[in-house]
Design brief:
This protein has a single domain, classed as 3-Layer(aba) Sandwich (Hut operon positive regulatory protein HutP). A four-stranded antiparallel sheet has the order 1-2-3-4, with helices on both faces. The longest helix is centred in the middle third of the chain and has 18 residues. It is globular, with a radius of gyration of 15 Å. It is an alpha+beta fold. It holds the Pfam family HutP. Belongs to the HutP family. InterPro entries: Regulatory_HutP, Regulatory_HutP_sf. Antiterminator that binds to cis-acting regulatory sequences on the mRNA in the presence of histidine, thereby suppressing transcription termination and activating the hut operon for histidine utilization.
Length: 148
C-alpha cells in the first residue's frame, strides 16, 4: 500500500474496514509507506464525544500539532465530512434519538507526487447507527479528506 498506488482516503477506508485477520498486514504496509495513521473506536449519542474521541486520538498519536490552528482545522473538517456520511447529511445523533458505535482511522501524508500539493488528512468511520436499542442498528460509513 503506497501512496503512488492508492489514495489517502482509500488507505483510511481499508484500515477502518479491515477485520482482525487483515489489520496486521495493513499495518505493516502502512508502516512501510510515508503515511502516518492511527486507529480507534468511539460510540455515543453525543456528536461532541465522537468528534472529541477522534481529535484526542490524533493528538495523542502525534498526527496533528495541537497548537497549530491549520492542523486542528483540517482535522475538524475531515471529521465533520466523515460524520456527514455516517449520519446521511444530518449531523445529529442524540437529538433525533440515534446512537453510533464506530471504528475510525486517521491517515496523514502527501498523497501527490508533486511536493507542492502538501499534506492531507483523511478520516474514515465505519460501524453502526440506529435507535439506542441494541440490535436495531445498521451499518454506516463515512470518509472525510482535507488539506492541511
Amino acid at each position: 500500500m503506497t501512496q503512488q498506488n492508492i489514495g489517502i482516503g482509500k488507505c483510511a477506508l481499508q484500515l477502518v474496514l479491515a477485520n482482525s485477520d487483515e489489520i496486521e498486514g495493513l499495518k505493516s504496509e502502512m508502516n512501510e509507506s510515508t503515511f502516518q495513521y492511527c486507529l480507534g473506536k468511539t460510540g455515543s449519542m453525543d456528536l461532541q464525544k465522537v468528534v472529541s474521541a477522534i481529535e484526542t486520538a490524533a493528538k495523542r498519536n502525534h498526527m496533528i500539532q495541537e497548537g497549530v490552528y491549520r492542523e486542528m482545522h483540517a482535522l475538524y473538517h475531515a471529521i465533520l465530512e466523515a460524520v456527514q456520511g455516517v449520519t446521511r447529511g444530518q449531523v445529529q445523533l442524540g437529538d433525533v434519538m440515534r446512537t453510533v458505535g464506530l471504528r475510525f482511522a486517521v491517515v496523514r501524508g502527501k498523497p501527490y507526487e508533486n511536493e507542492q500539493e502538501g499534506e492531507w488528512i483523511a478520516v474514515a468511520l465505519y460501524g453502526t447507527i440506529g435507535a439506542p436499542i441494541r440490535g436495531l442498528e445498521h451499518e454506516t460509513a463515512g470518509l472525510g479528506i482535507n488539506h492541511i
